[in-house]
Amino acid sequence: MLNVIQFVLDHPVQSALLAGDVLATIAVGWGILWEAPEQPIERHRIATWLVIGGIAAETICSISLFAYDEMISQAQQRLIVTATDRATDADFDAAKANTAAGEAEERAAKLEKEAAQLRVKAADAELELAQIRLPRTLSPPQQEQLSNIAKQFPNTPFVLTVFNDPEAISITGQIEDCLIAGNWVEKEFKGGDIVFSRPGKNALTLNSLVGIYVQADVSKSADFGALVVLIADQLKTDGIAALSQVGAMPSNMDKSAIFIQVGKKPI
Fold it and tell me: Does pLDDT of 17 surpass 90?
């Protein structure tokens, strides 16, 4: 929860757009429910507007979020170019300073240090930009490693939820396949209002989270406490941001299972 609050404080625009997207999705869901034949005709009219308005709002929020993300990416690219240019200039100044004696050598050392720092910043910015653009994924060796960890704890029950986004749905499927290959038992979350249906697989309840959370109820801390940390740490080792949590779960969550909630990729 603290991580979610911090994200909202750090990214108010993206949080507002994500919230609008989620609310629009909820409106569409209610509209679909109210279009059922057994509903009163008055609700049918409201349902039509809920569906139309919800779809329009989802589209606007998604396009706005994409445009905002693109603006951030362009700003990062400008930072890379600026930092690289400054590093080149600093290298040139350092080369000139090396030809002098005495005090000039001290100046050259300072300039070289600045150039190195700028190169590190440029590399970090480039890496961060690449991580923003690339989807989260597990390579075959990483999937095998996660499955091997799961096999050490066979028949562990788990529940998945997912953010309604192709990238989040894809990494959720990879994690799901690894755990099932490790002889874990998937259970369907019955407490969610809106679900994502999949042919031949359990429906996934949709969430509005950012990041991945591996969770266990405090009543099961003796059984699952160390395990949720192990799974989250393995995902982090594989370059996927994940947080382990052990606490009091809401009443609509199955406390006898580990919950793995896959939200939208953090920016």
Answer: no
- Helix (H) or strand (E) holding 241, with range, is none
Domain regions of the chain by residue span: 1-134, 140-262
Check: CB of residue 265 under 8 Å from CB of residue 259.
Answer: no
**Whether this model's pTM surpasses 0.85:** no
Which run of H or of E encompasses 246?
A: strand 242-247
Is 205 in contact with 250 (CB distance < 8 Å)?
no
Q: Is the pLDDT of residue 96 over 90?
A: no
Q: CA torsion 207→210→213→219, rounded to 10°? A: -60
Spacing of C-alpha 146 from chain mean position: 19
Phi-psi region for residue 168, left (φ > 0), alpha (ψ -120 to 50) or beta? alpha
Q: Is the pLDDT of residue 245 over 90?
A: yes
The answer, yes or no, to whether residue 250 has pLDDT greater than 80, is: yes
